[in-house]
Write a structure and sequence with these properties.
Order of helices and strands: HHHHHHHHHH
Radius of gyration: 19 Å
Shape: globular
Number of helices: 10
Length: 268
C-alpha cells in the first residue's frame, strides 16, 4: 500500500459519520469534566475542600446517578476524539500546506491529552482511583532525578505556561471561531462569551501549573509541582485569592458549557 493509499484510507476514516458522532460526545464529556472541576474549585474557594483537577472531577462523577455509565461514555467519547485528532495530525487537516505541520503538532498534543484523560476515566470506570496531583509530583521527581533534571523541569514548566498563554490568546482573540460553526441569532453572543471566558480562565490555570513546575525546579522539591489542583489552591493563598479562584472556577465552568455546545457546533 502506497503512502497515498494510506492517506486516503485515513481521510475516509476521518469522515466516518459514526466516528465524528462519538468524537462530538468526547467534547461533551470534556465539558462535563470541566464543569465538575469548576464546581470543586468553587468548593475550594469557599473552604469546603476537594481535589480541583481531572481526578477530582471524575471522582465527583462516580457519585452522580448513573455515574459508572457516564464514566464509560466518557472513556469512549474521549477515546474517539483522540482518534480523530490523531487522524487530523496525520493529515494536517484544517490549514494550508504551509501551516499543516503546526496543526499536526497541536492536534497530536491534544490527542495525547485526551488519551491520558480517557485512561484516567477508565481507571475510575473499572472501580479504581487516581490522584493527578500525586502523579504530577511523581513525574516531577523522576525528571529531577535525571542528569540536568532541573533544566528539564524548567523546560516543562515553560512549555506548560506557554500552553496556558496560548489558551488565553485563543480566547482573547476569539480564535476558537475557527473550530466551530458560530450560530446565528441569540445564541451567538452566549457562545462567544462562554468561549472567551472559558479559554482565558483555563489559560490562567494552566499557566499557573507551569509556574509551579518552574518553582519545583528552583527549589528542587517535586512537592511544589502539584498540577492543576495545586495551581488552583495556590490562588487561595494570594491577596483576595478566594474571590479570584471563584472567578477562575466560574470561567472553567463556562469552558465546560462551551465544550458541551462545541459537541454540536464543532467543524470536522
Amino acid at each position: 500500500m502506497s503512502a497515498g493509499d494510506v492517506r486516503r484510507a485515513a481521510r475516509t476514516a476521518g469522515n466516518n459519520p459514526a466516528l465524528t458522532v462519538v468524537a462530538r460526545a468526547g467534547y461533551a464529556a470534556s465539558g462535563l469534566i470541566h464543569l465538575l472541576i469548576g464546581w470543586v474549585a468553587i468548593r475550594v474557594a469557599t473552604h469546603h475542600g476537594g481535589e480541583a483537577d481531572q481526578s477530582g472531577a471524575l471522582a465527583q462523577l462516580t457519585k452522580l446517578p448513573g455515574g459508572t455509565l457516564g464514566l464509560w461514555a466518557t472513556v469512549v467519547g474521549l477515546g474517539a476524539l483522540a482518534l480523530w485528532l490523531l487522524l487530523q495530525a496525520a493529515l494536517g487537516i484544517g490549514t494550508s500546506s504551509k501551516k499543516r505541520w503546526v496543526r499536526s503538532v497541536v492536534s497530536f498534543g491534544k490527542a495525547v491529552a485526551y488519551l491520558a484523560l480517557a485512561g484516567t476515566a477508565l481507571t475510575f470506570a473499572v472501580g479504581g482511583s487516581s490522584h493527578a496531583s500525586t502523579s504530577t509530583r511523581s513525574a516531577s521527581a523522576t525528571i529531577l532525578s535525571l542528569p540536568g533534571g532541573e533544566a528539564l523541569l524548567v523546560a516543562v514548566g515553560l512549555a506548560t505556561a506557554g500552553i496556558g498563554g496560548y489558551f488565553i490568546y485563543k480566547g482573547a482573540r476569539q480564535k476558537f471561531r475557527e473550530d466551530i460553526a458560530v450560530p446565528d441569532g441569540h445564541y451567538k453572543h452566549a457562545v462567544v462569551v462562554l468561549a472567551v471566558a472559558g479559554y482565558v480562565a483555563k489559560g490562567i490555570a494552566v499557566a499557573i501549573v507551569g509556574v509551579l513546575f518552574i518553582v519545583a525546579a528552583a527549589t528542587v522539591d517535586p512537592r511544589d509541582a502539584s498540577g492543576l489542583d495545586g495551581a488552583l489552591k495556590a490562588l487561595v493563598g494570594l491577596p483576595f485569592g478566594a474571590p479570584v479562584l471563584g472567578i477562575v472556577a466560574a470561567g472553567l465552568m463556562a469552558y465546560g458549557v462551551y465544550s458541551i455546545a462545541r459537541a454540536r457546533l464543532a467543524l470536522f
